[in-house]
Amino acid sequence: MHIIEIYKSVQGESSFAGLPCIFVRLAGCNLRCTWCDSEYTFTGGKKMSPDEIDVEVARLSASKKAPCKLVEITGGEPMLQERELVPFMERLLAGGYTLLLETSGERPLVNVPKKVRKIVDVKCPQSGEGGTFDITNLDVLTQHDEVKFVLAGREDYEFARAFIHEHALEKRCSDILLSPAFRKDAGTERTAENCMLDPRSLTEWMLEDGLPARLSLQIHKFIWAPQQKGV
Fold it and tell me: What angle do CA 196, 157, 171 make, to 5 degrees?
């Protein structure tokens, strides 16, 4: 597989936020979201065999006190490498890891192993990639999967609200995540001022509408500088 980086940090998003996690970041993406924070994954990377990746994950997992058994596959768009990725995910599951898959939802997810916890984006209008979500992916969601909307403004929020209600998402997955997008020109200050949508405004809208959703802040961008990689 083409790999950009493998590193250990804390989960910054999802219902696993704050937990130690090993990230396997794959190269390549076929979408170009306006607020993308990982454009460095579009090209480059290095080829690594499943054995090589497995060894690096095991190295990062190792600990005398408490091995890290949470792994996230992310990108880029990991499902562009589906042929190689699916058997590798099965391999990690067999090794006793809890496995997360972060995906745009543009690619079919029917072949993803059932035990993998899918975190599936639905692209909103202000991303510039609205309408790319493969609607058939709703049928393969399980009660341990999560659906995420990255929001840049009120238009995105209203789209997410309508999508949630239209498809009764709360009955299809475990968590619905609403996450403010970060500015691509974010400075080094670790502050909500770097968000394109004020988290307080988003919270107030959610409370007013009684949405069955979870506010999701990218906490790694408050722990480290927003532009820092490998965290």
Answer: 130
**Six token digits for residue 208:** 């007013």
Helix (H, G, I), strand (E, B) or coil at 84: helix
Bridge partners, 47 (sequence order): 2
Q: Would you give the DSSP letter of residue 167?
A: T
Going by their DSSP bridges, the two strands 2-10 and 46-47 should be labelled as antiparallel
Cis before 76? omega within 30:
yes
Q: What is the DSSP letter of 76?
A: S
What are the phi and psi torsion angles at 156 (to 5°)?
-65, -40
pTM of the entire structure? 0.92
Is the Cβ–Cβ distance between 206 and 160 less than 8 Å?
Answer: no
Amino acid 195 reads: C
pLDDT in tens, 129-179: 999 999 999 999 999 999 999 999 999 999 999 999 999 999 999 999 999
d(CA 136, CA 143): 16
